[in-house]
């Protein structure tokens, strides 16, 4: 005999029976039996709904006899009622078992007789505990010296304002070469015109980098690499000229002098460095939590996150991409579930006014069509950030000592405790 539970309204006075044929942490397969009278009742309800929507010849809207509506639309009424019966039974089951669904229920089979029997398969979010998440010990890298930060920042600034100009000489390392390229492999040929490459760029094979050094405008060259033949036709060669850092350079950037430029640049870089270090520490927190709190992750949620990543990177679904991203997607899903659990335990939640402040700050436009969806989406993001900030605020942050010699490295036996 199966377990009996009350159905959700309007079927609360009746009962259903169910048997669990598959029951693990995330996967469920359930056979549900419902009295046929419940289906008949739902057909009557669907009939009344349809009566209020249709108008037939000789009858005013809402006045078509029930028997006529039921006879004329019996097939569609039954389909609608059966769909409602399955959904209500499924929701009642989730409520009784206190399961959080992780996927849509899949209807495996349905049988009609004196009773209605159907089998559902679905995934749920597993039960797990969160504890030991306050005072997590993480380690902070020592600050980078100001002079190094300033040098790096100035180099980036010079790169951003570099002048690219065409030259009439043989190409050297770091020059830009615009060329037409023809690639022959396995009997197939691919052609690309006006491709711009940087000599020495590690995205190019070493053989191509070497072949481009010393090449001139209008030259043609062939390079064979294993079973691939490259045909190169050079259109132009350009060099990059970095500007001198002087007062004129500073004034072009709306600064009065090099000194003011350096001060402003260092101020901005230090803020960026602080943000980078904070993000790294928060990433360390996530790794600790993922290591401490382990549970099976629903495949449907991993699949959804995996597809989201493919869309984000504009990549196709393939075995290589699945091998590359599936594990990352699993960790993201598991971390989000952990955060959700901690947020609930600590009563951390974002109210709508906070979401609206964010909407206003970001200049996001809301309308009647997207308002609810956007607010829910942003609310989830902000709630996630609030929970991470809570963990960060309550973490135990220790600063690592700067190791400056191989001897110190060899003698550094301090454990990194998670």
- Fold-level CATH name of the domain at 3-123: Alpha-Beta Plaits
CATH architecture classification of the domain at 3-123: 2-Layer Sandwich
From the alpha carbons, calculate the radius of gyration and give it in angstroms.
Answer: 33 Å
Helix content: 40-55%
Give the C-level CATH assignment of the domain at 3-123. Alpha Beta
Mean pLDDT: 89
The sequence of SSEs as H and E is EEEHHHEEEHEEEHEEHHHHHHEH
The oligomeric status of these chains comes to single chain
* DSSP helical segment count: 12
**Which residues form runs of ≥5 with pLDDT under 50?**
1-14, 413-418
- Read across the widest sheet, the strand sequence of neighbours is 1-2-3-5-4
Q: CATH H level of the domain at 3-123: which superfamily?
A: Trigger factor ribosome-binding domain
- Bulk shape: elongated
Number of strands: 12
Measured distance between first and last alpha carbons: 49 Å
Q: What structural class do the secondary elements suggest?
A: alpha+beta
Report strand %: 15-25%
**Biggest sheet overview:** 5 strands, antiparallel
Describe the fold and architecture.
This protein has 418 residues and is α+β, with helices and mostly antiparallel strands. Among the domains are: 121 residues, Alpha-Beta Plaits (2-Layer Sandwich), CATH 3.30.70.1050; 79 residues, Chitinase A, domain 3. 46% of the residues lie in helices and 22% in strands. The protein has twelve helices and twelve strands. The strands form three sheets. It has a five-stranded antiparallel beta sheet. Strands 7, 8, 9, 10 and 11 form a five-stranded antiparallel beta sheet that branches. Strands 6-12 form a two-stranded parallel ribbon. A hairpin with a 2-residue loop joins strand 8 and strand 9. The longest helix is centred in the middle third of the chain and has 35 residues. The protein starts with a strand and ends in a 7-residue tail after the last helix.
